[in-house]
Design a protein that fits this description.
Strand content of chain A: under 5%
Structural class of chain A: mainly alpha
CATH superfamily of chain A: ABC transporter involved in vitamin B12 uptake, BtuC
CATH topology of chain A: ABC transporter involved in vitamin B12 uptake, BtuC
Shape of chain A: globular
CATH architecture of chain A: Orthogonal Bundle
Number of strands of chain A: 0
Order of helices and strands of chain B: HHEEEHEEEHHHEHEEEHHEEHH
Distance between the termini of chain A: 52 Å
Strand content of chain B: 15-25%
Number of helices of chain B: 11
Radius of gyration of chain A: 24 Å
CATH class of chain A: Mainly Alpha
Number of helices of chain A: 15
Radius of gyration of chain B: 20 Å
Mean pLDDT of chain A: 83
Helix content of chain A: over 70%
Helix content of chain B: 25-40%
Oligomer: heterodimer
Largest interface: A-B, 28 and 37 residues
C-alpha cells in the first residue's frame, strides 16, 4: 500500500505536480465557497476560456504562457465588471459575451499564426508539464490569495450575503466584487497547468457545492471546501499517474465522485428525516389517531395515513 | 387631484405614537444606540432634488426635511419611487439635481456613516450559512478590525443587542429557523449594530402576517421612542401608514406630507395612486378602502357595509 503512495514521489515531476496541485486545490477549494454562495459558477468556465485566448495570442507574439493568460483573464474580469454594470444586464450575460469573445480571438489566432502550443495540455492539464515556474506561480498566487482572504474575509462575506446592505453599511461592495473577479482570474491562471482550461470551472465549483451540503456555517464551509479541494487534487494526481490520464480530468472526476456520494447521502438523510417527522407529527383528521390498521406507524416503518398529507 | 389640493395639505408635527408591539419591551436608551441627542441638524434634508438611474428621472422636485427622532412612512404605488428615495439617501441612485444631506453631511458618492438599512425580506437569501449572531456582527464590518474574526467586545455587544430586541437565545440559529418577525428583528439589530442614527427600512411589513406586522411595528415604535430617526416605505395604508405620526405620499414627486389624518384623503390618494379611494374614520384613525371594482360592487361591498 505504501509503495503505491511513495513510488510516484521518486519522480521529481510528480513531486512538483503534487505540491502545485495541493496549492491549486486549496485555492480553488476556498474560492469555490464564494463562487457557489454568489451563484457565479459560470465565472470559472468563462475565465478559463479567456485563458486559452490569452495563451494563444501570447504565444503568437512570442511571450510567456502566463503573461498572455494573466493579461487575458484580468482584462476579462475588468470587462465583465464594466458590462455587468450596464443597466438591464447581469453578470451571466457579461461573462458570456466577454470570455467567449476572447476565446474566439484565441482560436482565430491559432488558426492563422503557427505556434508550438500543446493544445491538449492547455485544455486538460498535464502532470508531466508542471515545471518549477508553474510551482512557484502556484505558491505565489496561493500566498497572495491567502493574504487577500485574511484581510477581506468579513467584507467579502457581507458583500456576498447582501451587497446592497453592505454598501450602505460602509463596505466598498463594488470594489470587493471587482477584487473577487481579479482574484478568481489569477487563481484560474495559476491552475491552468495542473487542471487544464476546460476543467478549471469544475474545480472552482465542486468543492464548494459539496461543502454546502455538509456544513451549516460559512466558516465550516470554507474549511471543508478547501480540504476537499486539496484531497481531490492529491487523489486525482495519483490516479493520473497510475491510470495515465490527464491530471485535470482525474482531479475533477475525484471531486465529482465525492459530490455524488455526498449528494446521495444528504438526499437519503433528508428522506429519513422527513419520514421520522411524519411518524412523530401529530395526526390530523379522524383517520389519524386510530389509523387504518396494519401499517399504522409501527416498527415496520409505515407512515400513518393521517400523517401522509402533512 | 390638482396641485392646489396638494399644496393645502398641512405638515403636521409628529405626535407621540402608541406602540402595538406583541413582543417584549426593548428597554433601549439613547446611549445604548449611541445616539447623539444634542445633534441639531436634520436627519434628512432634500432641496429640489431630481433623482433616477442613468438618464431616467424617477423622482423630481423633492424637497423634504426629516428632523432627528421622527418616524416617517413613505407610501405610494409600485414604481412611484419609494425605494429610489431610500437609495437617494444612501447614494445608491443618480442625483440629477438638487441638494441631499443626511445626518448633517452632504450625501454624494458614499452613504452617510451612521445609516442602518433593512432590506425587504424577499430580497434576502435566508438560507445563507450564517448564524443570527454573525448576521448582526456583519452590520459593523466597516468599523471592525481587518481580521477574519470579530472581537470578544463586538460579540458581547451583539449579544446584548439581540437580547434587547427579544432574540435572546437565538443567536446560534440560522435565519431560516426564525419566524418572519424574528428575522426582521435580526436585520434591525444588524442595522443598529453600527450605532446608526438613521434607520431606513424598505417595506418591512411586506408579505408578513398581521401578528408579525404588529411585532415589527412595535419594535419600530420603541426605537422611535428611544429617539432614533426611522424612515420606512410601505404599501400598507391601513395597517402601517395610518398608525405612523407622519406620512409622505410619493408618485414621481411628493404629493402630500403630514399626519395620516391630514394626508390620507380621497384627493391626495387619487393624486398618489391615480384611482378612487374612500376614506373613513374609525376611533379617530383613518381607514382607506378601495372603491369597489365595477361588476363586483353590488354583491361584495355595499356602502352601508363599509360605513358599519
Amino acid at each position: 500500500m505504501s509503495d503505491w503512495l511513495t513510488t510516484p514521489l521518486e519522480y521529481a515531476f510528480f513531486t512538483r505536480a503534487l505540491l502545485a496541485g495541493t496549492v491549486v486545490g486549496a485555492m480553488s477549494g476556498a474560492l469555490s465557497t464564494f463562487v457557489v454562495l454568489r451563484r457565479m459558477s459560470y465565472i470559472g468556465h468563462g475565465l478559463a476560456h479567456s485563458v486559452l485566448g490569452g495563451v494563444a495570442v501570447g504565444l503568437a507574439f512570442g511571450v510567456d504562457l502566463y503573461v498572455g493568460a494573466i493579461v487575458a483573464t484580468v482584462a476579462s474580469a475588468l470587462l465583465i465588471d464594466a458590462v455587468a454594470r450596464q443597466r438591464g444586464l447581469h453578470a451571466d450575460a457579461a461573462i458570456g459575451i466577454v470570455t467567449t469573445s476572447i476565446f474566439a480571438i484565441g482560436i482565430a489566432v491559432l488558426a492563422v499564426v503557427p505556434t508550438r502550443l500543446n493544445v491538449e495540455a492547455v485544455l486538460f492539464g498535464n502532470l508531466l508539464g508542471v515545471d518549477r515556474t508553474d510551482l512557484w506561480v502556484a505558491v505565489g498566487v496561493g500566498a497572495l490569495f491567502a493574504v487577500v482572504l485574511f484581510l477581506l474575509y468579513k467584507p467579502l462575506v457581507f458583500a456576498t450575503f447582501d451587497a446592497e446592505v453592505a454598501r450602505v453599511h460602509g463596505v466598498r461592495a463594488s470594489g470587493i466584487e471587482l477584487l473577487f473577479s481579479l482574484v478568481t482570474a489569477v487563481v484560474v491562471v495559476a491552475s491552468v497547468r495542473v487542471l487544464g482550461v476546460l476543467l478549471i470551472a469544475a474545480a472552482v465549483v465542486i468543492p464548494g457545492a459539496t461543502a454546502r451540503l455538509l456544513t451549516r456555517s460559512i466558516g465550516a464551509m470554507l474549511a471543508v471546501s478547501t480540504g476537499l479541494g486539496v484531497a481531490a487534487a492529491v487523489v486525482g494526481l495519483y490516479l493520473s499517474f497510475y491510470l495515465d490520464v490527464p491530471s485535470g480530468p482525474s482531479i475533477v472526476l475525484t471531486g465529482a465522485s465525492v459530490f455524488a456520494v455526498v449528494a446521495l447521502g444528504s438526499a437519503a438523510a433528508a428522506r429519513r428525516a422527513l419520514g421520522v417527522a411524519r411518524r412523530f407529527s401529530p395526526p390530523s383528521g379522524p383517520a389519524g389517531p386510530q389509523g387504518t390498521g396494519a401499517g399504522d406507524g409501527g416498527d415496520d416503518g409505515q407512515v400513518p395515513v393521517g400523517a401522509r398529507h402533512h | 387631484m390638482s396641485q392646489e389640493t396638494v399644496a393645502t395639505v398641512a405638515t403636521v408635527t409628529a405626535e407621540p405614537w402608541t406602540p402595538t408591539s406583541t413582543g417584549p419591551s426593548l428597554s433601549l436608551t439613547p446611549s445604548d444606540l449611541g445616539l447623539d441627542v444634542g445633534a441639531t441638524t436634520p436627519a434628512i434634508a432634500l432641496g429640489d432634488v431630481a433623482v433616477g438611474y442613468g438618464r431616467t428621472t424617477v423622482l423630481s422636485g423633492l424637497s423634504l426635511t426629516v428632523d432627528r427622532g421622527e418616524l416617517v412612512g413613505i407610501v405610494g404605488p409600485s414604481g412611484s419611487g419609494k425605494s429610489t428615495l431610500l437609495r437617494l439617501l444612501t447614494a445608491g441612485a443618480d442625483r440629477h439635481r438638487g441638494r441631499v444631506e443626511g445626518l448633517g453631511g452632504r450625501v454624494h458618492r458614499r452613504p452617510p456613516p451612521r445609516v442602518g438599512y433593512v432590506p425587504q425580506l424577499d430580497n434576502v437569501d435566508r438560507t445563507f450559512p450564517l448564524s443570527v449572531l454573525q448576521v448582526v456582527l456583519l452590520g459593523d464590518t466597516a468599523g471592525s478590525a481587518r481580521l477574519p474574526w470579530f472581537s470578544r467586545a463586538e460579540r458581547a455587544r451583539a449579544h446584548d443587542l439581540l437580547e434587547r430586541l427579544g432574540l435572546d437565545g437565538l443567536h446560534g440559529r440560522r435565519l431560516s429557523a426564525l419566524s418572519g418577525g424574528q428575522q426582521q428583528r435580526a436585520f434591525v439589530a444588524r442595522a443598529l449594530f453600527r450605532r446608526s442614527e438613521l434607520l431606513l427600512l424598505d417595506e418591512p411589513t411586506s408579505g408578513v402576517d398581521p401578528t408579525t406586522r404588529r411585532d415589527v411595528l412595535g419594535v419600530l415604535a420603541e426605537l422611535h421612542r428611544t429617539g432614533l430617526t426611522v424612515v420606512l416605505t410601505t404599501h400598507d395604508l391601513n395597517a402601517v401608514a395610518a398608525h405612523l405620526p407622519r406620512v409622505v405620499c410619493l408618485n414621481g414627486r411628493i404629493t402630500a406630507d403630514g399626519h395620516p389624518n391630514s394626508v390620507l384623503t380621497p384627493e391626495v390618494l387619487a393624486a398618489t395612486y391615480g384611482g378612487e379611494m374612500r376614506v373613513f374614520t374609525e376611533r379617530g384613525r383613518v381607514v382607506v378602502v378601495d372603491a369597489p371594482p365595477p361588476g363586483l360592487a353590488p354583491s361584495v361591498l355595499r356602502d352601508d357595509e363599509v360605513a358599519s
